[in-house]
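Input record (one chain):
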Amino acid sequence: MKMPVVALAVSGHGFGHAVRAAEVARVLLARGARVKLRSDAPRWLFPEQVEVIPSPAWPLDIGVAQHDGLDLDIDETRRRWFDFAAEFPARAIKEGQLLHEHGVDIVLGDIPPLAFAAAAEAQIPSLALANFGWDWIYEAWPDFGVPIATVQAGYAHADTLLRLPLHSLSPDAFPAFKTTIDVPLIARCARSPRSDIRKMLGLAEKATVVLLSFGGFTAHGFDVAGLGRSCDYVFVLTPPLSAGVADPPANVVVLPQAPADYVSLVAACDVVVTKPGYGIAADCLANRVAMLFTDRGPFREYDVLAEALPRLGRARYVPRADVLAGHLGPHLDALRSSPVAWTDEALDGSHVVAEAVLDRA
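The corresponding structure, as predicted from the sequence alone:
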């Protein structure tokens, strides 16, 4: 039987959409499917065998504009979306032509509305993969009526929503999709042993190591020197947070580049300090790494994750001001002493989603 050509249409907002789509791609490739990528996310997040559908000079998705890893720009998001909505029908036609030219049989979108409108133009099936929709995010902000209507018009073309855990339980969180099927968590497990990663980075095996991770963004006003006060811990910084750091405290390891096998770095640490998003939350739960999480502005997914994470694993809130000041020692002490029962949530979502794609194709 001829295996299908699957197009992954992936939002470039943060890394969470990309890393879970990449896990599905690995399974599809192993099953013999061809996988083609249309995304604004970095290419290096995906397997080498994935082929690229070139961008036709516009973004696939707007997502949310951000000043940095902690601050959203709602006004800029609105401005970009009104421009995008005006061109949406014409772009859907062009994107549909691209799918046809590349011989695509089915689209898996996470979760740009343009992807599903394009699939409809190409007259091929499409599946959505998400723990939230952009319409649900934008509903919390003023004057987003046009973007919400455009998003929902795109989502209405999807055949089915494959809904991931860590989603809103509100009955109106996914109003545009015709059919919804719940699938297990998609999470990455470390590919390299903890001891190997620590040895490579020069970290003592018995050190309590804390990774600061903000989804590929920096954090304006972050005081690296403040970490020196928490001398019982070793802190690891990766780009872009580590960019320009000079003369860090002795307990701070500054990496010039993030390792390609980022999830193994996560698993080699004892704690991750982060803004909560699906990708880093799933990685920490899968590898049983504790989390200190801070708020990320008026982004509705935060409330879902802030409620779920302390229930599913070892996680604790830390005020943003303390993160930026590097004042983390007392919060880390409290986190390490807190009781925990790690979730036994299934982690085979990538296989379940890949199977659904192949069945539908």
